[in-house]
Design goal:
This protein is of the alpha+beta class. The chain has 9 helices and 15 strands. It has helices spanning 4-14, 34-52, 74-80, 100-113, 120-130, 159-171, 189-207, 270-283, 328-343; strands spanning 57-65, 71-72, 88-96, 173-177, 180-183, 212-214, 217-218, 233-234, 237-241, 244-251, 257-260, 265-268, 291-298, 308-312, 315-322. The strands form 5 sheets. Strands 6-9-10-13-15-14 form a 6-stranded mixed sheet, with helices on both faces. The longest helix has 19 residues, at 34-52. It is elongated and about 85 Å long. It starts with a helix and ends with a helix.
Length: 344
């Protein structure tokens, strides 16, 4: 089972802002549940954002004013008879902090404040920063439309905060009972898969700058150049160094192996093996065997932890596990072993 502290380390790589000094004390804190970890990060993150100033947007408002401002709405003034009170209906832009991102932060903070698995001191920290959100509307967590969130240079500091909110709301929330929220104690597989993949990519970018590290598009190695209707191939992580390549397909499942009831046997998921084989053979356009592939599964509580190497038509394809329940230095050691293989 994954250590909650390792979720923090993975987040630190995926969102490098967590490595900054103002977040460093999170690393020394003890967390039993993911919700508690996210509450700590969000409390510090919102506090830092307040010091920078909360993001603001121009929001269109309509009001009846004695001193005209903005654009006059004559038809509405006649309709509601505002002129009888010596006022006019006006439409104007108000520059305020009642933005969608701030609404998401408020909704997520109150969700964590009510969560049973969040410690009292972290709830207090969230309540403290929420005093600055008095003019921000409250929205229901389940009503959030994540596609409505757009980033720009002006709000780039919100990106990590929004991703934490996304993990909390979509990965943790299950029900509301008697005014308090019950939550999953660990992030679900779908959310963890995205974080797991991003973490590995960013780990290699940081620690192996001599490598070319990308989530690269892989072209089909066709004879006549005709690729119409062929699906796109994009690797999770591609490491390239001095003419050699390792393609890593990161997998986070509750079960690493598929079970054949008829033969009472366990094997690697068929689609996973077909996929990595296809990536490797199409990437190795020179057929010189300098491209290899790894299916890198996050270790589960299954008894069997795959650690196999196969030589397939001149290319090495491995099936390995990364133990997210180990101490982080051991996880780093496993990733470093893969990198050293490319350098060797």
């Amino acid at each position: 089972m994954i250590k909650v502290r390792n979720i923090y380390y993975m987040l630190s790589y995926a969102f490098r802002i967590l490595s900054e000094e103002k977040y460093q004390d999170v690393e020394t804190e003890e967390f039993e549940y993911a919700a508690d970890l996210f509450a700590s990060i969000l409390g510090k993150g919102i506090s830092n954002q307040i010091k920078r100033s909360l993001g603001k947007n121009y929001i269109e408002k309509t009001d009846n004013l004695s001193s005209p401002h903005g654009k006059l709405d004559i038809s509405n003034s006649i309709k509601v008879r505002t002129m009888l009170t010596k006022k006019l209906s006006c439409v104007y832009d108000s520059y305020e902090e009642n933005t969608y991102m701030n609404q998401v932060l408020k909704a997520t903070s109150f969700l964590l404040i009510k969560a049973q698995d969040v410690k009292i001191d972290r709830k207090r920290a969230l309540k403290k920063v929420m005093l600055y959100f008095e003019n921000v509307d409250f929205i229901q967590p389940r009503s959030i439309v994540w596609s409505n969130i757009q980033y720009s240079r002006n709000n780039s500091t919100y990106k990590m905060l929004m991703n934490i909110c996304y993990l909390v709301i979509n990965g943790l929330l299950i029900s509301e009972e008697e005014g308090s929220y019950r939550m999953f104690r660990y992030v679900d597989d779908r959310q963890m898969h995205n974080l797991y993949e991003k973490f590995i990519l960013e780990y290699y970018k940081k620690h192996y700058p001599e490598f070319r590290v990308t989530a690269a598009q892989i072209d089909w190695n066709v004879d006549n150049g005709f690729i119409e209707l062929l699906p796109a191939m994009k690797s999770d992580i591609t490491l390239e160094y001095k003419g050699k390549t390792i393609i890593i397909d990161a997998k986070y499942y509750s079960r690493m192996l598929q079970y054949n009831q008829m033969f009472n046997s366990r094997t690697v998921h068929s689609n996973n093996m077909y996929q990595i084989f296809t990536y490797v053979k199409n990437k190795d356009t020179k057929a010189n065997g300098l491209v290899s592939g790894i299916l890198l599964y996050a270790k589960t509580d299954e008894e069997i932890a795959p650690d196999q190497e196969y030589l397939m038509s001149g290319n090495k394809i491995s099936v390995k596990t990364l133990d997210l329940g180990a101490e982080f230095k051991e996880i780093a050691g496993q990733l470093n072993t893969i990198a050293e293989e490319l350098k060797g």
